[in-house]
Amino acid sequence: MSQSECSLPQAAVVVFDAYGTLFDVHSVRLLADQCFPGQGQALSQLWRQKQLEYTWLRSLGGRYKSFWWVTQDALRYASQALKLPMSQDQENALMQAYLKLQAFPENLAALRSLKAAGKELAILSNGERGMVNAVVAHAGMEGLFSHVLSGDQVGQYKTAPAVYALAEQAFSRPAQEMAFVSSNAWDACAARWAGFQSIWVNRQGQVPEVLDVQACAVINQLSELPGLFL
Ligand code: LAC
């Protein structure tokens, strides 16, 4: 699909990435800072970076392990790399915080507005459904999504095409008829590879990935999303 073939108003379904897009993975920073004063941000950043690297490495190497455990592995790596010895209680608390990540404050209203406009909504995440359902419930977003889809269903991680194909199977529609929303630039690119009309939520003013493809639209936060479908 070329850029000129993007037509967001015609998308009947809007599929969302979870971590980083709906939920702020760096909301663990506060607890991390209590555990390791002054180091919360560094820990949070490296934890997330390693978590993603491990998903890519495991998918490429055919060594799938579920996202919860990959997340724990990444936390252990980050604490060692930053020389922040972590007790079992601290590890447990930080992992539990992942089930209560804060949603970005504007998200709930944006989702409700899309739903009221007649769009079908879904989540497509690396996280297994139990993990994602917990943060969805914590954010008061229950009942908004027709499907919560997970790479766990196919034992692979994004950017594997089989993960994106889960949305096509769930809605019995080609990807071209669906929008895909992600704050992770690489995820928005891979969704385009898979045929979706992707929207990149560029909250931090990052430069685009150079991957021979561009999102159909770039916004700064989810409150701009409903306007794209008018
Ligand atoms: C997810 C990761 C990419 O939710 O944040 O799939």
Structural class designation: alpha/beta
Rg over CA atoms: 17 Å
For the report, how would you describe the main beta sheet?
6 strands, parallel
Order of helices and strands: EEHHHHEHEHEHEHEEH
Q: What this model shows, in words?
A:
The chain has 230 residues and is of the alpha/beta class. It is built from nine helices and eight strands. A six-stranded parallel beta sheet has the order 5-4-1-6-7-8, sandwiched between helices. A two-stranded antiparallel sheet has the order 2-3. α6 (129-138) links the parallel β4 and β5 (147-150). α1 packs across α2 (40-61) and α2 crosses α3. The radius of gyration is 17 Å and the shape is globular. The two termini are 21 Å apart. The relative contact order is 0.18. The mean pLDDT is 96. It binds lactic acid (LAC). Lactic acid (LAC) binds at residues 17-20, 125-127, 158, 184, 187.
List the keywords.
two-stranded antiparallel sheet; single chain; 8 strands; 230 residues; binds lactic acid
Itemize the secondary structure elements and their pairings.
Layout: E1 13-16, E2 23-24, H1 29-35, H2 40-61, H3 67-81, H4 88-97, E3 102-103, H5 107-116, E4 120-125, H6 129-138, E5 147-150, H7 161-171, E6 178-182, H8 185-193, E7 197-201, E8 217-219, H9 225-228
Parallel strand pairs: 1-4, 1-6, 4-5, 6-7, 7-8
Antiparallel strand pairs: 2-3
Helix pairs in contact: 1-2, 2-3
The structure holds lactic acid.
